[in-house]
Specification:
The structure holds two protein chains of two kinds. Chain A is of the alpha/beta class. Chain A folds into three domains: 84 residues, Immunoglobulin-like, CATH 2.60.40.10; 50 residues, no CATH class; 179 residues, Rossmann fold, CATH 3.40.50. Chain A contains ten helices and 13 strands. The model of chain A has no long low-confidence stretch (mean pLDDT 90). Classes of the chains: A alpha/beta, B mainly alpha. Chains A and B meet through helix 2, helix 5, helix 6, helix 8 and helix 9 of A and helix 2, helix 4, helix 5, helix 6 and helix 7 of B. Chain A: Keywords: Membrane, Transmembrane, Transmembrane helix.
C-alpha cells in the first residue's frame, strides 16, 4: 500500500496523443501542436514544448501552463519539424512520444474569414447596383444635413469679410477612411471658394496627404476654369508631430484670422485644442470626424459637427453628383441589411439552439 | 526649494511656460516655442524616415541585398518628386492612385470586420450575450437596451429619407443614445487631459524647482 502511494507521488504521467499540424487559414510560419493532458495535470507546473528538425536532437521552444493542451509554434515554411511535449513537475519531466513530421505553408484562402467575404460581396453589390442605377440617370435624394447646409454660409461669410478659409484634415494618414472622405469634401469646398475667389489655406500633417490635397485643390480650381487661382503656398506640409501640428494650426488661426475653419478628417487629442482656439477667434467652425472619442469636443466647441457617417455622406451632399448619391443610397440599404440581420439572428438566437454567434466570429 | 542646475530641464521648463503663455494671448514667446517645436519635429521626422523607414525597407534590400524588384517601389516613390517638374508633374497621380487604392482596399475589409460583423455579434439577442454582461438576470435588460440603441442610432444615419414619422421618432431616440455616448467619452477624455496637465505641473514643481518629490 505504501509503495503504491509513493509511486503515485513520484511518477509523472506524460501527455499523450500528440498531434502537430500546419495551422489552418494563416499566412504560413506557424504549426499547431495539440495533446491529451497528463493524468497528473492538476499537480504539475505545465508543459514544455520541444522541437526537432531531424527527430533526434530536440530543443525547447515554448512553455504553457497546466490545463492547456494546445500550443502554436513559429516556424520557417517548407521545413520539416518533429515535436514532443513534456509534463513538468519540479525538475521531473515526462516526455510524450514524438509527433509525425510536419511543415508549415501559407494558405491561399482564409476560410475563417468566409463571413467577411460574404459581407463584402453583399455590401459591394448593393453599392455597385445603386451606382449603376445613378449612372442610368435615376436621381437620389439625401435628407438635410445641418453641418453641410452651413458650408455655403461659411464660404459666403469669408468672401464678405475678405478673409481666408482654413481647411484642416487632422493627423490621419491616407489609410484612414475619414481622411479619404475629407479629400472628397476638400474638393467640393475648393470649388466653392474658387467661384468666389476666396483664399483657402490647407495645412497638412503628412507628406502623402499633402501631395493628394494639393492635387485636389489644383484640380478643383481647374474644373471651374480658374487654374490661375491655385497658390501652392496655401496648401502645405507643416509637420507630422501631433502637438507641433496643433500648435502651428493655433498660430495660423490667430495670425491669419480665417473667417471659417473646417476641421474635417481624422483627429486625436489635438481636436479640442484646435476647436477651442478657433472658437476664440470667432470663426464659424464646421467639424467632422469618425473618431468617437473626439466627437464630443467638436460638438461642444464647433458650430456644426458631422458625426461619423455624416462625414462620408458629406461629399455626395455638397457636390450632389449622381454617382456619389448612388453610393450613399447603397450605404443606406446596407444599414437595412444590418438591421434585418440583427432581427433575424436575434430570433434564431432566442427561439432555437443554433449557435448563431459563431457565424459572426 | 531646490532649483535644478540641469540645463535640459531648464530648457524644458521654459518651453513649457512659453507654450502655456498662449492661454493669455498669442505672443513672441509662444511663437518662438511653436516654431522651434515644428522645426525640431520636422528634423526628427526626416532623420527617422531616412534611417528607420527608407533604409531598412528600401535601400538595404535594393542596394545591399540586391533584391532588384524593389526598384518598382523606388520608381513609384520617385514619381512624387516629379511634381517639381511642371511638364511631367501629372505623373504624381500614379503614386497617389497606388497609395489611395492600396489603403482603401486594405481598410475596407478591416472596417467591415471590426465595425460591422463584430458589432452585430455583440448586439444579437441570445442567452450567451445576456450572460456576457455579468449582471445576472438584468443582463437581458442591458442587451435589449443595446439592441434598441444600435437600431435607433442606425436609423439616425439613414440619409435617403427626411426624419419624419416613425423614422423621426427612432432617429431622435438614436440621437439620445449618441449624446449619452459622447457624454461618457467627454468625461473620460477630460480626465485623461487633466492628468496630462498635472504631469506638466509635476515636471515644473518637481525636477525643475524641486518643490515636490
Amino acid at each position: 500500500m505504501t509503495i503504491l502511494l509513493l509511486s503515485g507521488i513520484f511518477t509523472l504521467a506524460p501527455p499523450t496523443g500528440i498531434q502537430a499540424y500546419d495551422t489552418p487559414d494563416d499566412r504560413g510560419g506557424s504549426i499547431t501542436i495539440e495533446w491529451q493532458l497528463s493524468s497528473n495535470d492538476v499537480g504539475i507546473e505545465g508543459y514544455e514544448i520541444y522541437r526537432s528538425e531531424d527527430g533526434v536532437a530536440y530543443e525547447m521552444v515554448g512553455f504553457i501552463g497546466q490545463g492547456r493542451g494546445r500550443y502554436q509554434d513559429e516556424t520557417d515554411d517548407n521545413r520539416e519539424y518533429y515535436y514532443k511535449v513534456a509534463a513538468l513537475r519540479d525538475t521531473v519531466r515526462a516526455f510524450s512520444s514524438s509527433s509525425q513530421p510536419v511543415m508549415s505553408r501559407p494558405q491561399l484562402f482564409d476560410l475563417g474569414a468566409t463571413n467577411l467575404f460574404i459581407a463584402m460581396i453583399i455590401f459591394c453589390s448593393i453599392t455597385l447596383y445603386f451606382i449603376q442605377t445613378a449612372r442610368r440617370g435615376k436621381k437620389f435624394e439625401i435628407r438635410k444635413i445641418a453641418g453641410l447646409d452651413a458650408v455655403d454660409e461659411a464660404v459666403g461669410r469669408a468672401t464678405e469679410m475678405g478673409k481666408p478659409l482654413l481647411y484642416c484634415m487632422g493627423v490621419g494618414l491616407v489609410d484612414s477612411i475619414a481622411t479619404i472622405a475629407s479629400f472628397n469634401i476638400l474638393g467640393a469646398i475648393a470649388e466653392k471658394t474658387g467661384q468666389y475667389e476666396t483664399p483657402l489655406i490647407v495645412p497638412t500633417s503628412d507628406p502623402v496627404v499633402y501631395t493628394v490635397a494639393r492635387e485636389i485643390v489644383k484640380e478643383s480650381y481647374t474644373s471651374i476654369g480658374r487654374p490661375d487661382l491655385f497658390d501652392s503656398d496655401k496648401v502645405y506640409f507643416v509637420t507630422d508631430s501631433q502637438f507641433a501640428y496643433a500648435s502651428a494650426i493655433d498660430g495660423i488661426m490667430l495670425r491669419e484670422k480665417p473667417a471659417a475653419n473646417f476641421l474635417v478628417g481624422y483627429f486625436q487629442a489635438e481636436s479640442l485644442i484646435l476647436a477651442e482656439t478657433g472658437a476664440m477667434t470667432g470663426a464659424i467652425q464646421i467639424a467632422g470626424t469618425d473618431n468617437v472619442s473626439q466627437l464630443p469636443f467638436f460638438v461642444t466647441a464647433c458650430d456644426y459637427t458631422l458625426i461619423g457617417e455624416e462625414l462620408y455622406a458629406a461629399s455626395a451632399y455638397i457636390s450632389q453628383q449622381p454617382l456619389l448619391l448612388g453610393a450613399i443610397k447603397g450605404e443606406d440599404w446596407g444599414k437595412i441589411v444590418i438591421l434585418s440581420t440583427l432581427l433575424v439572428a436575434s430570433l434564431i438566437g432566442l427561439l432555437t439552439k443554433f449557435p448563431i454567434l459563431n457565424l459572426f466570429r | 526649494m531646490n532649483i535644478t542646475s540641469d540645463p535640459w530641464i531648464w530648457i524644458g521648463g521654459l518651453l513649457t511656460l512659453c507654450i502655456f503663455s498662449f492661454l493669455y494671448k498669442d505672443n513672441p514667446f509662444y511663437k518662438f516655442a511653436e516654431h522651434l517645436f515644428v522645426g525640431v519635429a520636422n528634423g526628427y521626422f526626416l532623420t527617422f524616415t531616412v534611417h528607420r523607414v527608407l533604409g531598412p525597407n528600401l535601400f538595404v534590400p535594393l542596394f545591399v541585398q540586391g533584391r532588384i524588384w524593389y526598384v518598382i517601389s523606388l520608381t513609384v516613390g520617385m514619381l512624387y518628386i516629379l511634381r517639381f517638374v511642371p511638364r511631367v508633374s501629372w505623373l504624381v497621380r500614379i503614386p497617389i492612385a497606388v497609395t489611395i487604392g492600396y489603403y482603401t482596399g486594405a481598410v475596407i475589409p478591416a472596417t467591415i470586420q471590426a465595425d460591422i460583423i463584430r458589432q452585430i455579434q455583440a448586439t444579437i439577442l441570445t442567452p450567451q450575450n445576456f450572460q456576457s454582461w455579468n449582471a445576472g438576470s438584468s443582463g437581458i435588460i442591458w442587451s435589449v437596451i443595446l439592441f434598441v440603441g444600435v437600431a435607433c442610432t442606425l436609423s439616425y444615419f439613414y440619409f435617403s429619407r427626411e426624419h419624419k414619422g416613425v423614422l423621426g421618432v427612432t432617429s431622435k431616440i438614436g440621437v439620445i443614445f449618441i449624446m449619452v455616448g459622447f457624454g461618457a467619452a467627454f468625461g473620460y477624455t477630460v480626465m485623461a487631459r487633466v492628468s496630462l496637465l498635472i504631469g506638466r505641473f509635476q515636471f515644473i514643481l518637481g525636477p525643475w524647482f524641486g518643490i515636490i518629490e
